[in-house]
Amino acid sequence: MMLTNKFILITGGAGFIGSHLVDTLLEKRNEIIVLDNFTTGRIQNLDHLTSKIQLVECDISKPGRWHKLFENIDYVFHLAALADIVPSIEKPDDYYQSNVNGTFNVLEACRKHYVKTPVTIHPATVC
After folding, report:
1. pLDDT tier at 2 (50, 70, 90 boundaries)?
2. For residue 84, how many other CB atoms are within 10 A of its CB?
3. Exposed/middle/buried for residue 125 (C-beta within 10 Å: 0-12, 13-18, 19+)
4. Which residues, 6 or more positions from 21, have their beta carbon under 8 angstroms from its beta carbon?
5. Pick from 59, 94, 61, 81: which is nearest to 125 by CA?
6. For the CA atoms of 44, 84, 111, 75, what is the dihedral angle to 10 degrees?
7. Cβ neighbours, 10 Å, residue 28
8. Cβ atoms of 46 and 13 closer than 8 Å
9. In angstroms, rounded to a whole number, what is the distance separating the alpha carbons of residues 12 and 48?
10. CB 60 within 8 A of CB 105
11. How confident is residue 29, by pLDDT bands cut at 50, 70 and 90?
12. What is the largest CA-CA distance in the chain?
């Protein structure tokens, strides 16, 4: 897959993996939009890139204007998730909302806006 000069949206782009993906994709002259609610991601991971990307703070587990950002996007990398085991047992509803509803909402935004290639790499399933 050649990812050069594309319009790419990354959910969870302020996390450790997401921010490194942003770095790599920017090297290939891509336009990047990052969506993150900063629950686990950190703005410091993207401080060196704020002039090169569009950074939007939002919660993908809830409906909102963020879905309009999927217009004219070529690729979506979905990395937004809650992944810690103990808190998931203590607050299962939060994890369900974030991981299940969030993923559904991202895929639905991809469908509605005809994203060519949604790529779901869900950290909660990577072990």
Report:
1. confident
2. 12
3. exposed
4. 10, 13, 77, 79
5. 81
6. 40
7. 12
8. yes
9. 17
10. yes
11. very high
12. 43
Based on its alpha-carbon atoms, the radius of gyration of the chain, rounded to whole angstroms, reads 14
Q: 37-68 as b/e, with b when 16 or more CB fall inside 10 Å?
A: beebbeeebbeebeeebebbebbbbeeeebbe
DSSP H or E segment with residue 119: strand 117-120
pTM to 2 decimals? 0.89
pLDDT at 127: 33
Contact yes or no for 14/79 (Cβ under 8 A)? no
pLDDT for residue 121: 59
Find how far residue 51's CA is from the centre of its chain. Answer: 18
Contact 53, 21 (CB under 8 A): no
Could you write out the DSSP letters of every residue in 27-85? HTT-EEEEEE--SS--GGGGGGGTTTSEEEE--TTS--GGGGGGTT-SEEEE------H
